[in-house]
Amino acid sequence: MRSRFYVPLHGIVAINLEETTLIRVLKLGILSVLLAITFQVQNLPAQDAKKIRIGFSIEAMNGERWQTDLDSFEVTAKKLGAEVISFDAKGQDDLQFTQVKEMIKSGIDVLVLLPRDTTTAGRMVEAAKAANVKVISYDRLILNSDIDLYVSFNRAEIGKMQAEYLVKHAPKGNYVLIAGSPNDEGAKVLHDAQMAVLQPYIDRGDIRVIADEFIKDWSPTEAYLFALKTINSSQGNITAILASNDGLASGAIEALRDRNLNGKVLVTGQDADLAALICIAGYTQAMTVYKPIPAEAAAAAEEAVRLAKNEKPRANGTMSNGKKNVPTIMLGPVLVTRDNIKTTVVQDGFQKLSSINQALPPDQQIN
Fold first, then answer.
1. Could you tell me the sign of the dihedral formed by the alpha carbons of 331, 335, 336, 339, in that order?
2. Would 51-147+293-332 and 155-291+337-364 be classified into the same CATH topology?
């Protein structure tokens, strides 16, 4: 039996309110509160209602270089309130394409893309553009594609630095060139810049290039095999090895060590890897090129957030990728030798002096 309530009105009549009526009143009150909350949420600023999501696709997380980039990128992006989704493609083009499509499907606003093959990566850009996702080409320029921004270091300047160092310290002799991946446009830019410096010496007959090879996937193992073959065929008559990065340099140095030539041949590099700095301090590698990677990664993260907000990127130039003149942020590299390790990579916090010295005998340590 339902309970009944009697509410007297002016002492004359009474209205019977059943329990179900009270419940309806309560429901109306709750509904009013919910509508008020909904109104407040709908009127929040857009950036609070939808967090910016950035996808960072990396062709292969080999060595220390790309992990440093990703860590620095994530720190800056998170400070700016953005969420970062990253994938390692393990050096496989098709896997990277699949991963990129997964990121696009998950609802990213901007794709930061570091491809293995800059000549075929356009399909990933097309997939992003079809979903109205902006694209930043990171460190390597994606060719013939509608990218929104390119962020990198001046590769032509790096190649010039490497070759100029060698001709200054060894203006005559037999040279070996170990270039990067044939699928990486940046490797070709490096090689062209190196040759521009060497050509006058070659023309005069002062320098003879006895071996010149692009190495698949920048592989240190392949560089070792190539260097060992060249050492054997030349009977060790090599003055300098112009290796385009520290990974290739490490392969060359290992081959020289196998033939008791380590420290007797000038070897260049790039990236300021810890292993390379140890070799430089130990006199088995002549130089490397330091690229302030945190600055590159931070710039890419900042611009990704700007693009997500439909703001114009803060480029300091343009570069043609065969399809368009791409807005470009180009950062400057720094030459590193044993004499300035402390005032460059150590001072910047990129590498620790203790990590370098602990791998060296006391007489080779940097004080």
1. negative
2. yes
pLDDT of residue 43: 42
Residue whose structure tokens are 């590159």: 296
Tokens linked to 5: 């309530």
Q: Kindly list the distances between the CA atom of residue 231 and the CA atoms of 16, 54, 191, in Å, as whole numbers in the listed order.
A: 106, 47, 21
Sign of CA pseudo-dihedral 182, 128, 101, 302 = positive
Separation CA 166–CA 231 (nearest Å): 18
Which stretches of 266-352 are DSSP H helices? 274-281, 293-308
Q: For the segment 241-282, what is each residue's pLDDT rounded down to a tens digit?
A: 999 999 999 999 999 999 999 999 999 999 999 999 999 999
Position 2 pLDDT exceeds 80: no
The two tokens of residue 88 are 């390692």
**Antiparallel, parallel or unpaired: β 325-331 and 317-320:** antiparallel
Length of the chain: 367
Q: Which fold has domain 51-147+293-332?
A: Rossmann fold (3.40.50)
Backbone angles phi, psi at 299, to 5 degrees: -60, -40
Cα(259)–Cα(292) distance, rounded to whole angstroms? 34
**What is the rounded distance in angstroms from the CA atom of residue 355 to the CA atom of residue 360?**
9
CB 126, CB 304: distance < 8 Å: no
Amino acid at 240: A
Beta bridge partners of 4: 18
Domain ranges of the chain: 4-42, 51-147+293-332, 155-291+337-364
